[in-house]
Amino acid sequence: MKRNPIIPFLLIAVFGLGLIFFLSLEGLDNSKEMAKEEKGGEQAEGETAGAFEPEGFYKQTCAGCHGGNFEGGAGPSLKGVGGKLSKDEIKEILTNGKGAMPPGLVPAENADAMADWVSKIK
Question: Is 53 left (phi over 0), alpha (psi -120 to 50) or beta?
């Protein structure tokens, strides 16, 4: 029962190289499609710039530090922040940052809407 072990090795190697070649061709096609979508995506973002949703933005950007229920974590708790700070102070923190919070997380054009929303958190 002595068989040549080089034959299965060569078959696997040829199959693997062929698979890599064909998948790379598929990747080239996908990269062209992704570039087209990205160009179209920029236009779509410009069209929907007025539809800013503070709660959705919070869930995507802020919840990691301030918690899903505004209880805090790496960042401070946001519960009752509207009673402690004015909307202008909240907007200032959102645009310029404070402490560990980096500046510019909230786009300047959306800072008013976000500050209004944050001030109403209870």
Answer: beta
Residue 60's SS3 state is helix
Length in residues, the chain: 122
pLDDT tens digits, 30-75: 777 777 777 765 544 444 555 888 888 888 888 888 888 888 888 8
Q: Which two tokens stand for residue 32?
A: 């062209």
Q: Is 77 left (phi over 0), alpha (psi -120 to 50) or beta?
A: beta
The phi and psi torsions of 98 (rounded to 5 degrees) equal -165, 135
Task: State the Cα–Cα distance between residues 118 and 53, nearest whole angstrom.
Answer: 12
- pTM, 2 dp: 0.55
Q: Which residue has the tokens 């401070």?
A: 76
